[in-house]
Amino acid sequence: MINVAIVGATGLVGKMFLKVLEEKELPITSYTLLASKKSVGKKVIFMGKEYEVEELNEHSFDNNRFNYALFSAGKEVALKYGTIAARNGCTVIDNSSCFRMDKSVPLVVPQVNINDVYDSSSKIIANPNCSTIQAILPLKKIDEKYHLTRVIYSTYQAVSGAGKKGIDDFENNTTTTIPYKIQNNCIPQIGDFEDNGYSQEELKMINETRKILHKNNLFVNATCVRVPVLNSHAESITVETECDFKIEDIKTLLNNSDNIIVQDDTTRQIYPLNTLATGTDEVYVGRIRKDLHVPNTLSFWCVSDNIRRGAATNAVEILEEIIKKETN
Ligand SMILES: NC(=O)c1ccc[n+]([C@@H]2O[C@H](COP(=O)([O-])OP(=O)(O)OC[C@H]3O[C@@H](n4cnc5c(N)ncnc54)[C@H](OP(=O)(O)O)[C@@H]3O)[C@@H](O)[C@H]2O)c1
Q1: Ligand 1 atom at minimal distance to the Cα of residue 8
Q2: Fold adopted by 3-128+310-327
Q3: What is the mean pLDDT of residues 298-319?
């Protein structure tokens, strides 16, 4: 018997959990959909069956009711209820930033470091930030072969990355969660600023990249920008490597990698686009080019659906891997 709770089932990521779970058909016995008080009684059709959303509360995890919980309800909810769930024998896969940098909690992109789950006794597993997940897939491939020494990110992040409120701000040109009107603006602030001048989103990318790749000394820098795009994040990524490479070899390497699609033909204006990435699980890369002056350095453009690959799909794939391992 495998019983699963979906916490934040009414949110953007939560709804995508349901969609991805429907597609994957994992051997799960029961699902329970949880959200805040205001969603109690909402009806959701999932796997051809009607579910009623229940309120998340202190007793939701009593009596070891769930084996696994997928959380996507923000940091505060994760801290309080993720901890309660874990104490009640439930393995929690959390999408918020709450536990990501906790040394005892594995921060996992399954294609890269699923073994961190098996090497740990933590009942909580953290899902990385959306902009980190999509970058890590190509970066890991380059690192394996050429050894990364430096990564510089510039992101162009969609409003859906700020949840339902972000989409409302985009559609109504309001400032509920995005600090300025997003229509006609690129806003170089995602999250609050820290004393060192970096935004929280930038520090997430920097710290999470190092943790997932197990490279604590990797030089990483990031500039994160919210742009007036509904869905899918785009990133310009520049990397420096220890070993020299031919750009054609990098293209072949990435093209032969699972979950990565190279779209790169400048003679025909072919490169990744947000609208084409949306609704898919792949990470699209293009504009792959060698730095004209600095040795062992290349830049590329990377686009992916932040709600699917950057959140729901990654979390469901972690769950899938753990179930596979435990039932074998
Ligand atoms: N959007 C992205 O691209 C993305 C990517 C990676 C990670 N994440 C992370 O995933 C989490 C959810 O993001 P989202 O974009 O899905 O946000 P969202 O659309 O605003 O949804 C938030 C969800 O959390 C629930 N919730 C809020 N407060 C709650 C409470 N006190 N008790 C129970 N449920 C509560 C909401 O339920 P109600 O509907 O009842 O209010 C809703 O289901 C956040 O931590 C976010 O940082 C988001």
Answers
A1: 43
A2: Rossmann fold (3.40.50)
A3: 98
